[in-house]
Amino acid sequence: ANSKIQIAIDGPASAGKSTVAKLVAKHFNFIYCDTGAMYRVLTLKALKANVDFADEDALMTLLADTQIGFEPGEPVQKVFLDGQEVTNDIRQPEVTNNVSTVAALGRVREELTNRQREIASKGGIVMDGRDIGTTVLPNAEVKIFLIASVDERARRRFADNEAKGIHTPLDVLKQEIETRDYKDSHRKIAPLTQAKDAVKVDTTPMSIEQVVDEIIEIASKKIK
Ligand code: CDP
Ligand code: CDP
């Protein structure tokens, strides 16, 4: 019997993790933590500071001095780097195309994993990322592995971009997604992979509401 459980949502790029995780957290009145945003914030700070993405020592020095903050927001949660809002900045192509390199570094992962567990220790939580069910919260009561075809995921990102006035061709987005998924799945430390006890949800034909309802139904069985 537990009303404050952990819900881990992992999956490849643009499967809908953040969108769905935020809504599930709202439903249960849980904390929502977007771990991808944390890797993106460090990548953005490294770009601004001109730190080489291969220089782990320099990145660790930077990270030690980096505050990552979240605040509720619509349609997406607000993200802060050292007190400054960077919600849009962390979605820039330059960040997106370098984040997997930063996220492959062992000490960077160790530090961010510690911070993520600290956030999760504060109560009921919905956390989304790549290694939440396998590494960050291996005892999570609910583990979801969210997937969708790469064409569908590219279309979703395309629609998001167009709404923001960013015009990247669909085939370029598809290529970016495939490259990032490959890097995330093939790194040595905590690669993107489905936890043995995770429920796979293929969202290709599903609406956001359908996905959210399915996860709420799965989680409700664990909440007393
Ligand atoms: O939202 P999108 O699918 O574009 O990605 P994200 O969730 O913002 O994550 C950005 C990147 O951070 C991923 O491509 C991974 O390289 C890295 N990441 C990770 O390694 N581990 C996590 N738990 C979350 C993200
Ligand atoms: O966090 P992740 O990269 O997995 O995906 P996201 O940032 O939540 O982006 C997913 C996009 O697909 C958003 O524009 C959603 O509105 C849309 N979408 C979805 O999330 N789930 C569906 N079943 C259908 C569309």
From TrEMBL:
Binding locations of ATP: G11, P12, A13, S14, A15, G16, K17, S18, T19
Subcellular location: Cytoplasm
Main location class: cytoplasm
Catalytic activity: dCMP + ATP = dCDP + ADP; CMP + ATP = CDP + ADP
An annotated GO cellular component: cytosol
GO biological process, alphabetically ordered: nucleobase-containing small molecule interconversion; pyrimidine nucleotide metabolic process
Domain Cytidylate kinase: 7-220
Keyword line: ATP-binding, Cytoplasm, Kinase, Nucleotide-binding, Transferase
Entry-linked Gene3D superfamilies: P-loop containing nucleotide triphosphate hydrolases
EC number(s) stated in the UniProt entry for this protein: 2.7.4.25
CDD domains on file: CMPK
GO molecular function: ATP binding; CMP kinase activity; dCMP kinase activity
Family note: Belongs to the cytidylate kinase family. Type 1 subfamily.
Protein name per the record: Cytidylate kinase
